[in-house]
Design brief:
By secondary structure, the protein is an all-alpha fold. It is built from three helices and no strands.
Length: about 70
């Protein structure tokens, strides 16, 4: 076990501001078992599940409909 490293990390953590500690806790303890949006996009692209949309005609344009206010 690297006791020196652990002690150094504890000293560094004690110097963090409350905001920085909060961010550190989020990074350490946040359940990241769900994929991120970029991972989902990559999965959809690699899985080719939506490739059929490339052959679909463009039915709508920016000029269609009424502007949303």
């Amino acid at each position: 076990m690297n006791t020196k490293l652990v002690e150094s990390l504890v000293q560094i953590i004690h110097t963090l501001s409350a905001e920085e500690r909060s961010l550190l806790e989020e990074k350490l303890f946040f359940d990241s078992s769900e994929p991120s949006p970029s991972e989902l996009i990559n999965l959809a692209l690699q899985g080719k599940a939506f490739d059929f949309l490339f052959d679909e005609p463009d039915l709508y344009s920016l000029e269609d409909g009424e502007p949303v206010t």
